[in-house]
Write a structure and sequence with these properties.
disordered N terminus; elongated; alpha/beta; about 525 residues; 11-stranded mixed sheet
Length: about 525
């Protein structure tokens, strides 16, 4: 049963005051109707080398496995509540093996103890209570029947798969399969702020989608990628290449803070364009900085915004006024002492915790809207914060709904042409370019398209694609060659003869053209073929 919005908001506030009372971190969202299971899966992506021949820290030769390790935490809807739930200490114990699957249990315990001790200053008692408290998930619980949408969580720069366990458990309790792996650099445990680093994490996202396809519960036709900070840039890179990703959530993502990697400049990835990322996006941003602060920032360009150029997507930008950048990670809120909040002015830790929970709630409702087609979720993300009964004066929203136009990509043009008919390839291309002045099909794309149609025995369509190619690239003999071959195959010998003669004008030694003109030219003209 779906609770009324006002009642749910009250329940959320009540939950905030009772859960973990007196401790540093509270997560205010009550769980959904599903029990939650957890698996820890250790795999190698053997298509990628992670360790170089020498250790990049010590310089010593590397022995053992060199493929890229991908330790994934998988949360999923489980059959029934019960069983022994994991504690946050159990989650912390997964960190030491993220880049080394061979570490012993004693090493894991020692490294986790050191991590706790290193973060306990100023709040040791509260932290120890919190990490001993049961969480929602039960390790290796029996999966619930049915199929569920898939969410890939991408952590921040060099961070851990457990960065936002509360969010991941919440999503699983509402009927999602959630997978998270650590943020590793291309060849080191530390991430790097360059294309190689972000592309490595983007490839991890696609690897996890591929793994999800092996899970009987997973509906990989409905996939979203959620990322915090650097992960909120890596998921955009992944979406630009991986059409399986249907929605994006960026938690104060580096998409905003590293425009140089997406602005089309010399340091940017050429394939990461708003047209290639034509999927709905929710961007949950920290408290906005002043223009002067932005101007002082080293990596910031104030004259370019990728999100402003996302004209083919529904884009929701929600600014969370009480929150600073680290506050989007429950790991940070749980592990940080109260002294870390001394610069929050009028905002208290409790207010930040509550706002963190609202960020999770917006994420859930956005995913409900765009992966499950839930009308109530869509209404929620399009409401004002006040209409959703959010805490007063804590959020600003900027909503841009796309106007229905298709992105200027080859996929969009193919879809348009299939609807209009391949015999209209040239006029349809002209119309498409008028609507999208930046669109262009290069000759290799056209050749590959025509060849593929011929390979699947669609010679009529292949003929029209090569005709388009000859129109756009009239001095490329291969276009006329392909056109002539398809004209001959579709009962147009005279048109084929004209095309092959054009081939010989451009490439006099073309064997196919010489042969065809020799065989068919005499009959057509009553004269010797050239």
């Amino acid at each position: 049963m779906r609770l009324p919005t006002r009642f749910t908001a009250c329940l959320l506030l009540t939950f905030a005051t009772t859960a973990h009372a007196g401790d540093g971190f509270t997560f205010s969202n009550p769980p959904g109707p599903h029990a939650v299971g957890l698996k820890v899966v250790q795999q190698y992506d053997r298509s990628r080398v992670y360790k170089t021949e020498i250790d990049l820290a010590t310089g010593e030769p590397v022995t053992g496995e060199r493929a890229r390790p991908v330790q994934a935490l998988v949360w999923y809807p489980a059959t029934a509540r019960g069983g022994k739930p994991v504690t946050y200490r159990d989650y912390l114990d997964t960190v030491p093996t993220e880049d080394d699957f061979t570490r012993s249990p004693l090493d894991v315990k020692r490294m986790t103890d050191e991590r706790i001790d290193g973060n306990a200053a100023g709040h040791r008692e509260a932290l120890l209570r919190d990490i001993a408290r049961p969480q929602l998930a039960v390790r290796d619980a029996r999966p619930e029947g049915g199929r569920f949408p898939v969410v890939i969580y991408a952590p921040s720069y060099s961070s851990y798969a457990i960065e936002n366990t509360d969010l991941c458990e919440l999503l699983a309790s509402h009927g999602y399969i959630v997978l998270s792996s650590p943020s590793l650099g291309a060849h080191t445990r530390s991430m790097t702020t360059d294309l190689e680093g972000v592309e490595a994490q983007a490839a991890d996202i696609s690897f996890l989608i591929g793994y999800a396809a092996t899970l009987p519960q997973a509906d990989t036709g409905k996939v979203a990628a959620v990322g915090f900070s650097w992960g909120g840039l890596a998921n955009v890179f992944a979406a630009a290449k991986d059409a399986r990703i249907k929605a994006l959530v960026s938690l104060d993502g580096s998409l905003r803070y590293y425009p140089k990697l997406v602005d089309g400049g010399k340091e940017a990835a050429s394939y990461v364009t708003p047209a290639r990322v034509a999927v709905p996006m929710l961007f949950m941003g920290a408290r906005p900085r002043t223009m002067e602060a932005l101007n002082r920032a080293e990596n910031m360009r104030t004259d370019y915004s990728f999100m402003n150029e996302m004209k083919y997507s529904d884009v929701y930008i929600v600014s969370m006024l009480p929150m600073k950048h680290p506050d989007f990670a429950s790991y940070a809120l749980r592990m940080m002492p109260d002294s870390a909040f001394s610069d929050f002015g009028d905002y208290s830790r409790d207010e930040v915790n509550l706002q963190h929970s609202w960020a999770a709630r917006y994420t859930l409702r956005f995913l409900d809207a765009y992966l499950k087609g839930d009308s109530a979720g869509l209404a929620f993300v399009n409401n004002t914060p006040a209409a959703n009964h959010a805490p007063a004066h804590t959020m600003l929203t900027d909503i841009r709904r796309h106007k229905g136009s298709m992105p200027p990509t080859q996929e969009s043009f193919v879809r348009s042409l299939a609807a209009a008919g391949f015999d209209k390839a040239i006029p349809e291309y002209v119309r498409f370019v008028v609507q999208n002045p930046g669109f262009k099909l290069d000759e290799n794309a056209l050749i590959g398209w025509g060849v593929q149609l011929a390979r699947v025995e669609r010679p009529v369509q292949a003929r029209e694609i090569f005709r388009l190619g000859a129109h756009l690239y009239p001095n490329q003999s291969i276009m006329h060659d392909g056109l002539g071959e398809m004209q001959a195959k579709t009962g147009q010998p005279q048109e084929a003869l004209a095309s092959y003669r054009r081939v010989l004008e451009l490439d006099p030694k073309n064997a196919d053209a010489i042969r065809y003109v020799k065989e068919h030219g005499t009959a057509a003209t009553g004269a010797s073929a050239p």
